Amino acid sequence: MMKAIQSIFFIVLSIITLSLINCGGKEKIIETPNEYYMFTGERVYPYALHNLKDKLIYMFAYSPLGEHKIIAYNYDKKEIELTKKLDNFNTAGAVHSIGNYNNTIELYVLSEDSVIILDGKSLDLIKSYKIYNAKYIYSIALKNGLLFISYSDLDYTDHLLVLRREDFNYLYFSSHSAHQGIIAVYTDPSNKDQIKCANYPFYTNNPSFYEYTFDLNGRRLSVNSGTHRNEGRLIKTNDQANFLINGNYGRVFFKDDLSNDQTKLGIDLIDYQISIDGKYVYTIQDDYSINKFNTTDFHLEKSIPIKQTARNLFIDGNKLIVVSYAQQNYKKNVTLSVYEDK
To answer: What are the distances in angstroms from CA 334 to CA 121, 312, 328?
Structure first.
């Protein structure tokens, strides 16, 4: 009897809430007790950002008519905290990023030729910095007060640019014939006074990548090149992990030997995240599950069932935060679900 009453309650609750959402309400539950309505958008950029400190997820929504906005959703409160309209941001594969500069969370949003820096808490504009002669900015990362930027110029020459965040002075500028693209920036595991920048191409069949070494002031010490399989734009690492993960196969590159790339975590992965301590990797794919791998031997420890087709994945302690939406719909209801890794 109790199960029957609960089933009736959830059906009625879903119908009421969906009606409210269609009227523009901010109600949270839409289908199950675990699923929360975030917003509705025409187009949703697949690369979202996570502010662990303030419990915010930043989604990038836009329309073909030109409206671009960043939506900051608080996953503890289950509500939109802020919305920021921008004239433009890149929606053709650029990888925006988030960083901590002088104890302030900053968003680094890329347009075709500029870096837009926003306060992560208020979404107020801090600075818009135009890169001279830039045609397309691929990706950006902050490390030790330095901004690493990969871009292509108007002559289709690719560059890695390093700026001092404090005053935007140029510290390093390079060009190579190979197409560069997404970058991973991390502390050199063998020398904590050095920074590594791995730069992988996309939109090209050229398999070359570059591994740069810098001192903490942005002076280039060395550069090496190698080959990789060019399997997609995703790239993840952190300073506690001794590896990078790259591409839709979740291919593992070990930092002490980036040519060692025989380990892969799946096929057609949608997103993945590394735990803060570097001990686990979580992946999502089109099978209604979150897979958890240990990073000792990248063995699959468990598969956690979920109720949605996930598009983005984030980690907060033992919470696994999933963002979902239907790709084929013209207008998308974007939802958030929270699972626990028990």
So the answer is: 22, 11, 13
Q: Which residues contact 181 (CB under 8 A, 6 or more apart)?
A: 138, 139, 150, 199, 200, 201, 202, 203, 233
Q: How many CB atoms lie within 10 A of CB 54?
A: 12
Domain ranges of the chain: 1-33
Average pLDDT value for residue range 35-57: 94
Q: What confidence category does residue 11 fall into, taking pLDDT thresholds of 50, 70 and 90? A: very low
Q: Nearest Cα to 134, choosing from 110, 151, 111? A: 151
Residues 104 and 278: their CA atoms lie apart, in Å, by 24
Contact 197, 148 (CB under 8 A): yes
Closest CA to 255 of 265, 245, 264: 245
pLDDT at site 30: 37
The count of residues in the chain is 342
Q: Which range has the worst mean pLDDT, 88-97, 161-170, 272-281? A: 88-97
Using DSSP's 3-state secondary structure scheme, residue 153 falls into strand
Instruction: Please provide residue 329's backbone torsions phi and psi, each rounded to the nearest 5 degrees.
Output: -75, 145
Angle at 292 between CA 290 and CA 296, to 5 degrees: 165
As a whole number of angstroms, the distance between CA 338 and CA 342 comes to 13
339 pairs with which residues across the strands? 320
